[in-house]
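Exercise 7. Given the components listed, write out the predicted structure of the assembled complex. Treat all entries as one system.
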Amino acid sequence: MRWNILKVLRESGDYVSGQVLSKELGISRVSIWKHIRNLKEDGYVIEASARGYHLVSSPDLLLPGEFHSWEQKIHHFWEASSTMNVAKELAKRGTEEETIVIAESQTHGRGRLGRDWLSPMGGIYITLILRPKISPIYAPRINLMASVAVAKAIRKFFGLKAELKWPNDVLIEGKKVCGILAEMEAETDVVNFVNVGIGINVNNPIFPYAKMATSLKEELGKEVSRKEFLNSVLKEINEQQVLLTKGDLLEEWKSLSATLNKDVRIVAPGEEIIGRAIDIDASGALILRSQDGSLRSAIAGDCIHLS
Ligand code: BTN
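Answer.
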């Protein structure tokens, strides 16, 4: 209901009386007043006068009311251990597809290969729960899909040249701005759920030792609106999801790739492959040509650009 009130105030752009709100939304004026108080506590500046309520400004928080078509599917936390943990619980309990868990900060953010993902306020930390009707072997395509969506949103929204590093990092000028972590539960040929975690450095501080990392604030020299940017990321995800089962997704990934045609070293548990990255296959594996001319494929691991 809180978000319905916000919507009416936003659309009006002027004062709306308690009476009109109460009539339009079918709740008492006391309830309206209570919801307004909650909105104010969240950081919305709402003036109240004899003419009614007027929305003066909204905070740059990732609250459900800021994401119109997704509003009902968002679980928002001021602080979570990791949105991956919350999403796993929800997915196991059968929550509907495209539920999104959003945290303003995380105390135990998780990265790929067991690493930590530092998650102070100012960044974007979300996990999207998907139930794609694809074979588990094609599940890595979901990571490709998410990285394509973020890179395209950065390009369109900020005009920055975002590129992709295999398997699914988003880079600006060679520095990492976004990481993606997917967790799947599947049976032999059915995916129950894939949870796609997306961490984007936006206005959050970049820790001095993270030399190869950057943030949107760092690149643009100013703070940016996280909620507007996340809206554009979600829009891209909607568009890219349609391509999940089509070859076009791979073409999109290739056109944004900073890895293809480079000499790379892939470091995977118990294995290291060095070669020229020449392609990715339908399951998202990287195809490399080794120095002896043989073809190798890497399905997971860290990728270091050598040239
Ligand atoms: C990587 O190592 O590059 C992947 C980082 C993924 C971080 C995101 S932030 C939202 C979600 N919750 C987590 O704990 N991790 C992912």
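Discussion: DSSP finds eight helices and 14 strands in the chain. The first strand starts at residue 45 and ends at 49.
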